[in-house]
What we know:
Chain A: Keywords: Nucleus, Transcription, Transcription regulation. The complex is a heterodimer. By secondary structure, chain A is mainly α.
Amino acid sequence: MAVHRLSLNPSSYKTRFTQRFLRALMKINKNKNRSSTSSSFQEIRRGRRRIKIAADGSMASAVGSKRAWSRAMLYKLRTRTRHQAWVRKISTAAKRKRDVGNKPEEELSRTDDLRRLVPGGEAMDFCSLLEETAHYIKCLTTQAHVMQSIADFYST
Amino acid sequence: MNSALPEMLQCVQTSENIAGNGTDMTVLERQRGRLKWQQQQLQSQQLQQSYFNENQLNLFSLSQTQHYQDLMNNDSAFRELANQSMKVDPDLENGWPNFTKYPIPRTGFCGEMKGFVSSGLQTDALEMDYSISRTSSCPPAEAVAMAGDEKGIESVLTEKLASTVGRDSFKKRKADKAQNPKVIVAGDVKVKKIKGDAEEVESKITEQNNSSNNRETSADTSKENSKVTEVQKPDYIHVRARRGQATDSHSLAERVRREKISERMKYLQDLVPGCNKITGKAGMLEEIINYVQSLQRQVEFLSMKLATVNPRLEFNIENFFAKELFSACPDSFPSVGMPSEIVNPAYLQFNPAQQVVSCGLDMAVNSSDMGLRRTNSSPVPVPETFLDSSSFTQAQLSTIWETDLQNIYNVEFHQGRSSAFPSQAFTGSMEANNLKMEM
């Protein structure tokens, strides 16, 4: 076991993410304990959203501000609660504008799809979009690994 | 006509230098130059005719002859000065020595322009200044030498070079165009030396949005020469055009961009599994999008799973242990967490559960973990324990999950270490079914 302890990389994305995520989970857990423990669908949905937000937030904060996608994600999360409706309005309006202005769906440009998937990808040129996508994929895989291990650990 | 042009250019140089040191040249000197020029004019009538055909020649005045004469007398002195001060490519200078012999009827004119001319004419003079500045062997410089301002000439010349380069992108004159081929010819003599710089400067010019290739090449030469002592700005990207490829600034930038994109696509190809066979941007993009979508869905699903699993467990203790788990086996099945495959999968299943139970009993996870792992303690009926300890209604759901999951884990363990992906998908489907049953 000591070997494993030593092999921990304290500065890797994985450890940073794990720490933050577990902390967030603890917080959520405490809140859940305090509040009612109803198992209604709404509660489950809310809980799931909270955990997803916690996961995304912890991942983005583990990455830091070095990457555009993490910055965009953090911004989205931080302004989410305050300007939720406003942001949604803006995004839908922008989407409508884009659909009108852009070519019709005959153009199978997957670039726009990718832009939608990667946070903050709307405002990037193709070259940096690819770079952000690569980094985002790496972090997503890490996130999925960690969450899977946590889930498995706690579900057994 | 062509032969007249260099003279015209030289004349411009003269005027330019004079203009640069406009205050240095007195009216007397100019008049003297004009007189001399008049003498020369008689000798080279034909050349003058060609010049007079130009638009700018309309403003010629005989008084400018003296100016030119003055300048011509100091041919040798100027040569020395030019060699010292001019930072223009020496080849240019060598290629033009004979020009000094020719009379430059427009010298005075240019000088006059500098002296008296209105704004409209001045631009023309500037034009010629720009084109002339590239020639080093110009008698005009002699006049400046005459004025005794050597350092001034240097600065003037360099200024002119720099300024003319700055004006490159804005002005297109016949003189310039005529000058360009000659400059390029001279430049070609030293292709090896200039090419690298030309390419580099081309990229610089790209940022200045120059228009024509010729302009860029010629501007490059002068720019390169004038900025020999300047520190290279770090924000310029030095690109070298490959053999047989266009050296246009736009195409260069395009090529750089394309190379960047292809490099990143290759990196993505390594990242996304199963993309080795796919070539081409479109197919790769498709795969990448699918992969990102699947990863996002996976994270979402896992978060949902955690949401249900979450409440029963404490996390502060698990922090360290979880880290251990994760760091030990990043790719293997997560709940294994064991260094060796020797451990009985059954124990593996139960150990974490046991630890959890012990957590509930306020036992240190680490010690219990160690103890449990080393001493092959009999497996505790975990699911029942869980059920008893949990007080949440979700426990029933999770129980079902656990039993199924245990089966899954058994299967997976026997199969060996499987990649996380299919295992997760498998458990996902199982849990989805469970959810359906419950909901």
